[in-house]
């Protein structure tokens, strides 16, 4: 799986952001039906001139569509195709998502399993290459195992120094489930970092706070998904290779965990 991905939640110039990211070396974009911009992602891909086969594109289906996720996937693939080619269907082998996620564990066990089965069907038909979940706690993933279904390849969670979700991270690592880190830049709201540790690590390493946060994520084995619409930020946010955060600075960042109090988003991982 490609590493740093461009997030496009609330990306008001999504097509432009995708084009700039792909021109600057990103190969991975994280979208969702809920964001309403699957077509703009396709437009950005087309404008970048980068071949679709070189890219890793994700979308997600929200709980309101859990009754028929297979149809939702067909619509999502058509949205992307429309952006890239100006037409919807018929769908061929080059029309697909690399990864498709259940966006949240809302709706109860039966609804979640039905939704997950729909994604597995979509994968059989070649509409998605791989299937995963988002905002799932271990008990939600265990439902999948107990139903005898294939385990998800990804769990996408809010993950950053202020919200480290350690029990879920440990569970996913044990089960070889890749962790994608959303809101990895804490949306630049560092109010939970009272002593300014993030900025002080950045100053010490002569990097930006964004670079430190993305690098922290990578050093934990996560796949971070920073969002930006500005070219310079898009570029520098992913300029995180060839240097490391030393162990003692990682320890200072790791000590910032506030548990659920550090979350900027809803916390659906505890849903029954
Ligand atoms: N699965 C889920 O439930 C879920 C939930 C939330 C998010 N996500 C995914 O994760 C992605 C990222 O999360 P997010 O959008 O919540 O937050 P984020 O990536 O932590 O932060 C984005 C914010 O930081 C600003 N920013 C970016 N780079 C910057 C820099 N170098 N300096 C200063 N400010 C900078 C952006 O503004 P500009 O755009 O103006 O640069 C934007 O306001 C989303 O876009 C989405 O793809 C998934």
Automatic annotation (TrEMBL):
GO MF, one term, reads: oxidoreductase activity, acting on the CH-OH group of donors, NAD or NADP as acceptor
Q: Where is the active site?
A: 35
Q: Does the keyword Oxidoreductase apply?
A: yes
**Which sites bind substrate?**
103
Site described as Lowers pKa of active site Tyr, positions?
A: 60
Could you tell me the keywords of this UniProt record? Answer: Oxidoreductase
* Origin: domain of life: Eukaryota
Q: Where in the numbering of this chain does the NADP-dependent oxidoreductase domain appear? A: 14-257
Q: Which SUPFAM superfamilies match?
A: NAD(P)-linked oxidoreductase
This protein's name: Aldo keto reductase
Gene source species: Coniophora puteana (strain RWD-64-598) (Brown rot fungus)
């Amino acid at each position: 799986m490609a590493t740093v991905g461009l997030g496009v939640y609330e990306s008001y110039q999504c097509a432009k952001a995708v084009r700039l990211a792909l021109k600057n070396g990103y190969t991975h974009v994280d979208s969702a039906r809920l964001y309403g911009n699957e077509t703009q992602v396709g437009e950005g891909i087309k404008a970048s001139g980068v071949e679709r086969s070189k890219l890793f594109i994700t979308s997600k289906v929200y709980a309101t569509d859990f009754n028929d996720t297979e149809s939702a996937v067909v619509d999502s693939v058509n949205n992307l195709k429309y952006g890239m080619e100006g037409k919807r269907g018929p769908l061929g082998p080059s029309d697909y998502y690399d990864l498709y996620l259940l966006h949240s564990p809302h709706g109860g066990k039966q609804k979640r399993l039905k939704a997950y089965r729909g994604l597995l069907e979509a994968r059989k038909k070649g509409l998605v290459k791989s299937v995963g979940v988002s905002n799932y706690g271990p008990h939600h993933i265990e439902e999948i195992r107990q139903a005898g279904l294939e385990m998800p390849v990804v769990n996408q969670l809010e993950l950053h120094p202020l919200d480290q979700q350690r029990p879920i991270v440990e569970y996913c690592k044990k089960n070889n489930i890749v962790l994608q880190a959303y809101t990895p830049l804490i949306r630049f709201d560092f109010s939970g970092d009272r002593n300014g540790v993030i900025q002080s690590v950045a100053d010490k390493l002569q990097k930006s706070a964004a670079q430190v946060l993305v690098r922290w994520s990578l050093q934990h084995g996560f796949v971070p998904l920073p969002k930006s619409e500005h070219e310079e930020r898009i570029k520098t946010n992913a300029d995180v290779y060839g240097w490391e955060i030393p162990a003692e600075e990682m320890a200072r960042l790791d000590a910032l965990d506030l548990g659920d109090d550090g979350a900027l988003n809803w916390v659906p991982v505890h849903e029954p």
